[in-house]
Structures are given as structure tokens and as C-alpha cells.
Amino acid sequence: MLELAAGQGGMPDWLWNFILAALKATGVLAFAMASAGLLTWVERKVAARIQRRRGPEVVGGPWGVLQPLADGVKLFAKEDVMPRAVDRWVWALAPSVIFFPVIMVFLVIPLDPKFGALRDLNIALVYLAAVTSFTVLGIFMAGWGSNNKYSLIGAMRAIAMIVSYEIPLVLSVVGVVLAAGSLSLVDIVEAQDEMWFIIPQFLGFVVFYIASLAELNRTPFDLVTGESEIVMGYLTEYSGIRAGLMIFSEYIGLLATSLVAASLFLGGWHGPFGTDSVVWLLLKAFFLVFVAMWIRWTLPRLRIDQVMNLGWKFLLPVSIANVVLTGAWIMVR
Amino acid sequence: MAQEQLFMEGAVEKREPIPENVERQTMELNLGPQHPSTHGVFRAILTLEGETVVDVEPVIGYLHRNHEKIYETMQYPQIIPMTDRTDYLAPLTSELAYVLCVEKALGIEVPERGRILRIIFNEFQRILSHQLYAATFGMDIGAFTPFLYVFRDREKALDLMDRATGARLLFNYFRIGGLRNDVNEAWLEDFRAWIDNFEREGWPEYVRLLFENEIFRVRTKDIAVLPPDVAMAYGASGPVLRASGVRWDLRKAHPYLGYEEFDFDVPVGEKGDCYDRCMVRVMEMKESVRIIRQALDRLPDGPVLGKVPRGVMKLPKGDYYQTVDAPRGETGCYIVSDGGATPYRVKWRSPAFVHLQLLPYLCRGTKVADFIAILATLDPVFGEVDR
Prior knowledge:
heterodimer, A: 333 residues, mainly alpha, 13 helices, B: alpha+beta, Cytochrome-c3 Hydrogenase, chain B, 3-stranded antiparallel beta sheet, 8 strands, globular, disordered N terminus
């Protein structure tokens, strides 16, 4: 990318930057959409495997890999239903407000040793915390704008959960930041050259993973859309491509969080025998995605007060202890 | 409703006192009749304060098909397939209550093979019903996978039922005086294999997958405790009553079909919370397997249908009542006859209908998610509640 930038010819700087930004944005969007599509298929296949079924097989290609495409076409072709009672603007904007913050996570993820991240921010982790907590606004817009009590309860649960789990999530990362001495994800990955942070920061990893499952609204914390209680939560009044977009953003969020977790704790692009590349990052991230799916199709759902208790009374003290221990360890060393 | 009344028994105990100057508001949530987990068409009007259930008003009647009145226009043998449609997840027990009642009125003897087969099918039906209970309870608390493991076994069981009775769900199998048809040796062999497989693999698998799960335990333990005296006061029966620690089983207390010849235990719970109500049903499946094994061992040869009076069947004038211990509790069939070819009046005593009135008592002070779990532990079938 740098060589390209050097050979830009007679183009003015601002135009070149604009084109570069547009290219990056398109690339991220395409990657995110494609992988979310893939993940819906993977989820179905994993679920089928766990439930001793075969999953999608009929639509196109071997093992039904074209299923997400068929789903997408179906969702696009559906009538765009807007219930009469909704708060039009709030309701219609919510899917986008949920969708874009998740996409923005991809910007700072370190992809490759040579290339670095799309944008190597020196405060990447602060940026991540800011961007991901934006999603809750979209969820509340959806829940409030739908003018439906199930949606409202779902949104209330989402806010309670995301706000509570944001704290242990951020605190669990502090240990990594202390160990690496930087807030930049690229620096953090480079600091894991000799040892992945999952070994010294195991507590941090556990807290991070549990808290991100809660942030992502995955089982056992899927009570935001717990279909046996509140139908579909904030998604209840959405259909067609709007619902599709929101479900897609959940999958993109799952992948994005797994990529972040892989970068923070599993060494990012580092592989054995000097084979460092983006492939390793993706492998690790997909493994974490698989674990999330495995959990989802095995466990029942917790209740809202139990989720709150877990967050405030267990994860928060553990993550604080982790910060203290890491600090003490650095002092002693 | 006045503000003080909104926070009744259970609700008050579990909350911190709210300061005087805080304004409280409740929200009414109309849950159902179209809802993923109301086990059919049930509507509950929940009064919520945040997530806390302040009050519940069960609304039933969406599946009312006028069963009891229709029976008055039908001859006695014609009613049997109708009884299937009351408790459609355990049709054979409703059939059993009805045919036993008519047999009692007419003094019809059932041949030995028919009687033992009735026990086998009745207990098989109990296993199937409780299996489905385990499956749907898992779904209600968010675990989807156990459902499919149950359906693996249930599918084979329904095939067995299909081979024996000709139907997979509404069997129409019991007749006044015995059974519609005998089962053959090949069927009995496959049935034994199913029972063996269920006891060795299926049952332990459900327990490991769902009932031993830690999240399952925290979701159900100490939720909606039903003390034995309250359970009896509300007229609870079956697993709901037994979970509260009352050892009351009609198969032991008022034996019918000769259940007294069989050796089996009546599992009871300790506290009467959601967990006990689940585990009682799980343990009952084991006991049913025990009964089935004993019954298979003593299955004699001979006819399955006894001698029934020829011509139009008429019950002597009077009223007749028979209860059986159905998977959901005490199912009773009450027939009043004026001596004609059709009953003068038939009344079903359906356990789930009685259990539904426990809902407000059990749900006050719990969370919305608990409400779904509590409803599921009462195991209502709305075909039977509304009839």
C-alpha cells in the first residue's frame, strides 16, 4: 500500500486519499458481508452437526454453500413492511445504526505483518470501545421505535446488558494493554511475538470472551432476542431486508469480536515457523466463532438478573483483579 | 387496582423496599394467544413492573371445540376418537378414562391380554408425553438442541405407534371392551428394543444434556415454590402435586387396570419448585419403563377384545365417574346417562385446566423469563384445557 502511495503520479493528495479510503471502505464492506453470509451458513451447519441433522444441502453447490445467497435474494425480494404504529424515522434508521458501528471495527484490526491494519490508530482500543458501544443506540432505536412491548423489553434488556458488560470487557483488555505497553492493536500483536497473551492474561481472555458473548447477544446471554420469552426482542417488528441487515450485523459483530480477541490474546497474525500471515488470524478468529456457535447450540439461556449478577459480581471483580495482578507482575519484573 | 394491592405475597418478599417518593408504573403485556412458547393457544395478561411479574391473568378458550356438548349427540363407541382430541399429547390416557368409565357402567370384562396391553400402551404414552415435555421445556428456557435429541427417539416411537394403531398422533386404539387390534411378535420385539435403547441411551442423554446443566439448575431451582398445602388447596394433581412432596398417584391410591399388581415407585419432589416439577417427570419415565418391562414379561396370549353387548350400546340410567393418572395429572371422565343411546352429559376433569389457576400464585414476583418456565412446568395442553 505504501509503494502505491509513493507512485501516485500527478494526482492531488486529497483525491488520492479519498480514492484510497473509498477502496478500503468497499473492501471492508465486501469482506464483512461475504463473511457474514458465510457465517450464517457455518452456523447452520454447526447447529445441524450438533443436533445430528444435515443442515442446508439442497440449494446450490456442495454442502449447500449457496444457501446464504438464496437467503439474501429472498430477503431482498420481500415486501418492505412498515407497521403503521412505528415511529417512522427512528424505526427505519435503526438497522443502519446497528450495522455501521460493527463494520467500523474492521478498520483497526491488524491483518498482516507487512500490511498492518487498514488504519493503525494509536488509540485503537479506545476507538473499539467507543464504536462498539454505539450499537446499543441502534438497538434502543429499534426497540423504542417499533412501538411494541416485546421490542421495548428486548431493548431494555440490551441496554442493561451492554452497558454492564462494557465495563468488564474494557477492564479485561487493560491487562493486555499493560503487558504490551500500547493501545494500538498492531503494537499489541507485535508484542506477542514470543508468547501469546492468552497465557499470561488467561483471566483477561476468559472475561473478554464471556463479556463479548453478552455484548453480541449470543447464548447463554441471548435474552435480548430470547424467542421463547419476548418473541424476537427488538427485531420483532422488522421483516425482509431490514431484519436481514440486523441479523447480518450480529454475525459481522461476532466475526469482528473474534478477530479482536484473536489479535489481543491469540497472537493475531503470528503462526508457527515464521508463517505469519493473515491466514492465521482468520483461522484463530473462525475457531473462536466456532466456539461461540458450539456454546449457542448447547446451553440454555440465563435470566436477566442472573446475567446482571454474573457481570457485576463476578466478571467485574475478576477483571479488576486481573488488572491489579498484571500491574504487580510488571512492577516486580 | 390500588397501588398496595399490586405487590402481593411473592412480589413483596423479593424486593427491596421502594422509597415513598418514587413513582411506580406498571405495564400490561398481552402475551399470546399468538406466541412462540405458550404451548398452543394460551393468552396471559401480564402486569409487569420492569421485568418483574406483578400479576398474571390467564385467558383460555381459544381452542374450545365444544367437546362435551358434541358427545351428547354421539353414540358411546363413536366418542372414542373424539377423546383423542382433548389431550392430544397423551390421547391414550383420555381414551382410557372414557372406556374404563363406560366399561364400569356396563360391567364389561376386558380379556387379560387386552388389559396388559392397555397398561403397556398407557405407560408408553406417559413416556412419550414426558419426553415431549423435556423437549419443549428445554426450548422454553432457550436450549434448542435437546428438542431434536428427543425427537430422534420420539420419531421411532411414533412409528411403533403407527404400526400398532395405524396413527401417529391421534391413535383411536382403545375400544369399549379392550383394544381395536392385537400387536404381533415382530412389533413386540421392536418395542422391546426401543425401550432398551431409551433406557440405556436416550434417557441418560436428556439428563446429561439438559437436566444436569448448571444453567438449567439456576434457572429452575427455587423458582415458583409450590407448598404441598397450597397445591392440594388448588386441586393440583399428577406431577405438579408430587413435585411438592405429596405421594399421591391414582395408580396406587385408586388402582385401575390392575396397577396394584405392578411394582413401581412414585417419585416425589422435595420443595415443589420448577426443578422438582421437571425432575419428577424425568424420574416417572424410568418408572414407566419398569412397569412396561413387568407387563411385557406377563403378557399372555388370547383375545384383546372382550364380549360387548350387541346392538346399540346403552348405559343404564345413572352417573359414572372414572379417573386415571394421566401424564399431566388426574384426568377424569364423568358420564351421566338417561338410559338412551347417547350420553345425557359428559364432563371432563382435565388436570391442566386446574393447574392453570396456579399461574397467578406461582408467578407473582418472578421475572418474565420465569413466567415462561413456570407455564412450561405446569405442562398444559390446550386441547385439554379448552376441550
